[in-house]
Structure formats: C-alpha cells, structure tokens
Amino acid sequence: MATEDMWVTVRPGDPFPEQQKCIRALGVPGLDQEAVSHPDSYIALWLRPDGEAVCGTAWNEGGIVKARFTWDGKQFTGEETNGFRILKYCEHDSDKYHWVRAKEANEHALLYIGEYVPAVVVCGKDAAIGKANWQRKMVWTCENNCESCHQDEEFSNCFLLAKE
C-alpha cells in the first residue's frame, strides 16, 4: 500500500520537485522513450473529491509541473485538479520499484493505491499509463478522451508497478 511519505504533493503551476527523487513512469522492459506522450513522465496520483484514486502521469514542462489523468472516459489535466501527488523514492531500503507483467506479478508485491495499481499498457510502439484493478483483472487507460478497458490477454500483458 502506498503511504503518505511516498508522495510529493504539488499544485498546478508549482515548480517541478526536482530534488524529491520522483519515480519515472518509464523503465518498462522493451519500451522506448518515444512510446509515451511525455518521455520524461512520472507516476502521478489524483485523489478525487469523492476519494477515488486516479493514476496518471506528470512531467516537467519548462520547470513547471504538468499532469494528465484518466477518469470516467475523460482526460483531465493537472490544472483541472486542486492538486495531485507524484510518487517518489523513500529513504527506506525496501522501497525499490519496478514494472512487472501482470501475468508474472505477485499480488502482495504490487503498489496499491486503494484498490488500484499504476499500470502501463503497451500496444506496439505506443504505451498508455492508467490504473489496474488486480481483483477484477482489468486496466483502464485513456488517450484522446477515449477510455479503453483492457482485460484477459491485454491485462496479462500489461505492466504493473511493484515494490521489491
């Protein structure tokens, strides 16, 4: 489970937290940097007013933090939130993150945020960052305001964020 000390809280327009050792969204085996809209992407979390966790991506744009989130079939920018969080490395030795294919994942090693896990779905040379529900074996992503639900083989082949 992700704890409070694992996140940097930012607001739209804040300077990017360079000194916080934020965790990049890339690092997926075989995924080149051109596959994600913003190659310098980081794992982001928006907690909606109703409490639902929404995984997304944040990046440094000219020294300012920017973000994008998927929820209910729509994309939201960081500016449309009242603030969000970026995952960071903790000082604890056990907090080492890596991407693992869902079909090879250990349920207890996944980084849960409520009932969800940050996920990357790779389709050819493209990749989308979203959220997975391990129990339901589903991943949701959104590109160009079009939500996709990935199940079965697509779920098995997606990458989930885990801790060592």
UniProtKB/TrEMBL annotation:
Pfam families: MFP2b. InterPro entries: Cytosolic_motility_protein. This is Uncharacterized protein. It comes from the Eukaryota.
